[in-house]
Each structure stands twice: as C-alpha cells, then as structure tokens.
Structure to design on (278 residues):
C-alpha cells in the first residue's frame, strides 16, 4: 500500500470512528444539564416565583416565573441553551424584567432537578407545557414572546411554527444542529445527528417579527449561521431586527443578557405592537 493510500485509509477510519462516537453518544454531547436544584426563586429576585408546569407525558418541571409590570402587555417564554440550569440565568431574567415584560424561564427535563432525559422530542413537550401554563394564567397570545438561546432557538422556532407568538427572539441561532456539528468538527458528520433543530428552514414559516442577536466571535455557533437565519426570515417577508455584539463569544454575558439583547427585545416587542413596555 502506498503512503498516500495509507494516509487516506487512516483518515477514513478516523472519520468513521468519530461518526460512531457522535452517533452513539450524541445526546450526551448535545445536552449538558446541571441537574442540581436551583435556589428558591424568591431568594434570587423580588417578584420571581417557583412554579411547576406539567407536560403531556406526565413530567413535572420546575420553572421560574414573574408576571409583567402593570401596563406592559408582553410576557417572554425563555427556552435556554443546552447547558447549566435556571440558577445560572439570573442575569437573563433581570434583562427581560428591565423592559417591564413578564418572564417564564424554563428548565427542560433533566435540568435543574427536573426528572427525565433531554431530547428534541422531550424539549418540544416541555416548551409546549410552559406555553399552556402561561395561557392558563391569562397571558394573551398577542402578548406572548418566545426567546430561545442557542439550542433553544430550535425549540422556540418549532413552537412558533405550530403556535405563532407575537414576536420571536433568537440569541445565537444555528441554521440547524447538524450544521453546527459539521462546523465544530470540520468534517461532514451532521448526517448522523438525530435531534436536528432546522431553524433556518422553520423560521421561514414564522409569521411574527423576529430578532436575531449574535456574537461576532462565537466559536460554537458560527456568526454566519445566525446571519443566515436572519436572511431567511427577511426572504420570507418578516420584519427582522439584528443586533451583533462585536468580539462576543457564545456564552459571554454581554451577549447572553446585555444591552444588545435587551435592545432587540424592546425593538421586536414594539414591532409586534405590544404596548406599555419600556
């Protein structure tokens, strides 16, 4: 065997082995939950409450909720990224509340002391349960805003296709999870991914104003993917707000809960015609 063929065969074996790792261990790589129980909501922020939402498959999920200020018609349903739990997102809750909007910060199954194991199908049930709970509390659909971060952009975009919100906020959206995998490993491995989150395709079916917030130094979700999601929404005729945080990485605070996110939320709420929010 020539040296060139040996190198080629070795590279093929390495790719096949890597594909096997991704196939068999993909959900443990995709979802990195902090399973510990977060602090009590009342000990975190004034007006924040611990509540439980119940999924269609019988999961009791602990979440945090704060109602909107008097006069503000917006409530934001937050679908987090793939790591941590709600205890690490106090800054995000504060950012949303600074606009006067209400907020429900979801923890998925398997996160934050919740039972179960995360998957795309499971997360879809979880976010629907959170939406149903808000509607049961009297939150009107014309004031309901979905906010997803990272993998949560796939969760809320799918929800938005089925149950349109007043507005959609996508922080660090991917075109799809297979595209993230391809970019991360530098070889085409996305075809083995089962939980696909096709944000770029599904955002075209959303009939609401969309805000996209991205960091220009994001090494997990390439900024070009987030821009492609914004372009897809524009091509579908949607009103699109884009905020870029120069030099921000994927989990930088300035991106996750800083002025750009707050500004994008305010702008898209205004575009949706929701009154009374600062």
């Amino acid at each position: 065997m020539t040296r060139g063929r040996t190198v080629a065969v070795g590279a093929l074996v390495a790719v096949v082995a890597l594909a096997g790792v991704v196939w068999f261990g993909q959900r443990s790589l995709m979802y990195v939950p902090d399973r510990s129980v977060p602090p009590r909501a009342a000990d975190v922020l004034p007006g924040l409450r611990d509540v439980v939402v119940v999924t269609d498959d019988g999961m009791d999920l602990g979440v945090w909720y704060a109602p909107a200020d008097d006069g503000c018609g917006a409530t934001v349903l937050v679908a987090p990224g793939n790591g941590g739990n709600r205890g690490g997102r106090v800054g995000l809750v504060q950012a949303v509340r600074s606009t006067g909007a209400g907020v429900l910060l979801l923890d998925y199954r398997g996160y934050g002391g919740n039972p179960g194991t995360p998957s795309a199908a499971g997360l879809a049930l979880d976010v629907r349960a959170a939406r149903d709970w808000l509607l049961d509390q009297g939150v009107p659909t014309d004031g309901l805003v979905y906010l997803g971060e990272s993998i949560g952009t796939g969760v809320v975009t799918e929800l938005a296709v089925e149950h349109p919100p007043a507005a959609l906020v996508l922080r660090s959206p991917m075109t799809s999870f297979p595209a993230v995998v391809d970019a991360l490993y530098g070889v085409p491995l996305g075809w083995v991914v089962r939980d696909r989150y096709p944000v770029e395709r599904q955002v075209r079916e959303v009939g609401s104003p969309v805000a996209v917030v991205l960091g220009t130094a994001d090494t997990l979700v390439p900024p070009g993917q987030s821009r492609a999601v914004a372009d897809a929404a524009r091509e579908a005729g949607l009103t699109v707000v884009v905020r870029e945080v120069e030099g921000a990485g994927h989990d930088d605070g300035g991106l996750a809960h800083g002025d750009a996110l707050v500004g994008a939320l305010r702008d898209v709420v205004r575009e949706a015609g929701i009154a009374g929010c600062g």
